[in-house]
Design brief:
GO terms for molecular function: acyltransferase activity, transferring groups other than amino-acyl groups. This is Alpha-pyrone synthesis polyketide synthase-like Pks18. Its EC number is 2.3.1.-. InterPro entries: Chalcone/stilbene_synt_C, Chalcone/stilbene_synt_N, Polyketide_synthase_type-III. Keywords: Acyltransferase, Transferase. The chain has twelve helices and 13 strands. The chain is globular. The C terminus is likely disordered. Strands 5-4-6-7-1-8-13-12-11 form a nine-stranded mixed β-sheet, with helices on both faces. It has a two-stranded antiparallel ribbon with strand order 2-3. Helix 1 packs antiparallel against helix 2, helix 3 packs across helix 4 and helix 10 packs across helix 11. It is an alpha+beta fold. It has a domain of 142 residues: Thiolase/Chalcone synthase (Peroxisomal Thiolase, Chain A, domain 1), CATH 3.40.47. The longest helix has 27 residues.
């Protein structure tokens, strides 16, 4: 990095989940009961629920905790009883803003950033839409300036959270007086389908609801426990256009997620990652846990240790895949662990995958404290 370059970093992180907790074993049992007329699907669902690496998830929809005969999202319901897209979007509109607001307030407090300092607001979601959108609602609820630059990122899938972090890095690197608040909210469980197909059951096995937020800005002297960010890198991996499909249907969004995604990643990820491993294998690996198979593939391909993938697996185990919101849960878990063991500066890479098959990468470096000379450099840019 050029000596005169400001330190662009994640200054604060916040996370939030809904009130309702889904126990994986209990959910699998109730779903199997709903599949009583489809014994092959029931057996397959039990196996995939057990093997996907998830123990618990969270949902904004209490009906998903009901018995199989009362749950409107499970197979066996009449067509008239299944929640329509309009009904699901009404729940999304009601639940998304409070959840995003909670995560945003935590991020601002964690980063000790005043709301008046926020110049850009990036909102991220692919599980619901309404207008005026979550961005406008958050401006009002947080008391941000009415002139804040609002940038909604919609329908970019699991990679969108890291896409937002990369975009924020570019904004602040080019305009060091800028300060970017990112808020990701995903209510994935609203789109569970009452279907006995393997595609629907696979998607139902590991997605959860959650929100995350972070503040990206120039780090001044005295800041502690930061992730410094380098320029992002984006790529579309070959052969992945039809492997992850998310379309609007009459009963929510229909997801197709190929079980061949980990294999594709294993085939093509080396080239996009080359600039990040040129100086040797990084120590930190913040991998979006899009599924157990993705983490396994990255671990095998790059010879990663269990400690290097611990945070990714822990987030998948405790929260499931929360689409775009998940990567900040991983970074927060990593930051907490690094701080608890008094780690010195250590570098790495954050990466996430989405429809396309898209790949987003951002270089990260854990900085336990910002040295005094960094403040002198920063002041030249303010």
């Amino acid at each position: 990095m050029n000596e005169s370059s400001p330190i662009v970093a994640i200054l604060g992180i916040g996370t939030a989940v809904p009130a309702y907790r889904l126990d994986q074993a209990d959910t699998a049992k109730r779903l199997a009961e709903g599949l009583a007329d489809h014994p092959d699907s029931a057996r397959w669902s039990k196996r995939i629920f057990k093997q996907c690496g998830v123990d618990t998830r969270y949902t904004c929809e209490p009906n998903l905790l009901e018995s199989a005969d009362r749950c409107r999202y499970y197979p066996g319901r009449s067509a008239e009883d299944v929640p329509s897209t309009a009904e699901r979007m009404a729940v999304y509109k009601r639940e998304s803003v409070p959840l995003g607001l909670k995560a945003a307030k935590q991020a601002l407090a964690d980063g000790q950033v005043d709301r008046s300092d926020i110049t850009h607001l990036i909102t991220v979601s692919c599980t619901g839409q309404f207008l005026p959108g979550m961005d406008a609602a958050l401006v009002r609820e947080l008391g941000l300036s009415v002139t804040v630059n609002r940038i909604p990122l919609t329908f970019l899938g699991c990679a969108a959270g890291l896409k937002a972090v990369g975009l924020a890095q570019q904004i602040v690197a080019d305009h060091p007086s800028g300060c970017v608040l990112i808020v990701c909210v995903e209510l994935c469980t609203l789109h569970i389908q009452p279907s006995a197909t393997r595609e629907a059951l696979f998607g139902a096995s590991f997605f959860g609801d959650g929100a995350s937020a972070c503040v990206v800005g120039v780090a001044g002297e005295g800041r502690r426990g930061l992730f410094q960010l380098s320029r992002p890198y984006s790529a579309l991996l070959p052969g992945g256009a039809e492997e992850m499909v998310w379309e609007v249907g009459n009963n929510g969004f229909d997801l197709y997620l190929s079980t061949g995604i980990p294999k594709l990643i294993g085939q093509f990820i080396a080239e996009p990652l080359a600039p990040f491993v040129a100086g040797g294998k990084p120590e930190l690996w913040a991998i979006h846990p899009g599924g157990k198979g993705i983490i396994d593939t990255m671990e095998d391909l790059f010879g990663l240790t269990q400690e290097q993938t611990r945070a990714c697996r822990a987030v998948l185990r405790d929260y499931g895949n929360m689409s775009s919101a998940t990567i900040l849960f991983v970074l927060e878990d990593m930051r907490r662990e690094l701080a608890s063991r008094g780690s010195g500066p250590v570098g790495g890479v954050a990466l996430a995958f989405g429809p396309g098959l898209s790949c987003e990468l951002v270089g990260i470096e854990y900085v336990p404290s910002v040295p005094l000379q960094a403040q002198a450099r920063d002041e030249a840019y303010v």
